[in-house]
Write a structure and sequence with these properties.
By secondary structure, this protein is of the alpha+beta class. 45% of the residues lie in helices and 21% in strands. The chain is built from five helices and four strands, in the order αββααββαα. β1 and β2 form a beta hairpin. α1 crosses α2 and α3 crosses α4. It starts with 12 loop residues before the first helix and ends in a 9-residue tail after the last helix.
Length: 143
């Protein structure tokens, strides 16, 4: 597997990237609510547009698989690199809704909780600012 989350040895990379790029351009049709928990976050990400809702579900399931299998993406971004370096300490529960997904992401490790919470903020910024936000790298919270 590429150390930079590239397609070498990762056949799903291109599809995952295509779905992410699509979602970046759909921000105005996406609703996202983040509830901060003591041990992580609960997020609700939905769209009234059926195609967008389907892509949200596809994206979240793909990213859950990447965390569980430790198949990194966006390794140029320090926050995402830190998430994948700590992936084994992250628990994700995904519940599909009619219009998207509810995700509960938690950890027993206080630093990983900070990573999860910061990641949720960045994803909200992806929804709000689209491609402009995706071009940025994101800082890792202090331990």
């Amino acid at each position: 597997m590429s150390q930079h989350g590239g397609p070498m040895g990762d056949p799903s990379h291109q599809q995952d990237r295509a779905v992410f790029q699509y979602l970046l351009s759909q921000g105005p049709s996406i609703e996202r609510v983040v509830k901060v928990l003591d041990n992580g976050v609960e997020t609700l990400t939905e769209s009234a547009v059926p195609e967008v809702a389907a892509k949200i579900k596809e994206h979240v399931q793909a990213m859950k698989g990447r965390v569980e299998d430790v198949r990194p993406i966006r390794m140029r971004d320090p926050l995402f690199a830190a998430i994948f370096e700590n992936a084994e300490a992250i628990s994700m529960k995904v519940e599909e809704t009619e219009r998207g997904v509810r995700v509960t992401e938690t950890s027993e490790h206080p630093y990983v909780v900070k990573l999860i919470q910061e990641h949720a903020k960045v994803v909200s910024n992806f929804v709000k600012y689209g491609h402009q936000e995706a071009m940025k790298n994101h800082a890792v919270p202090q331990p």
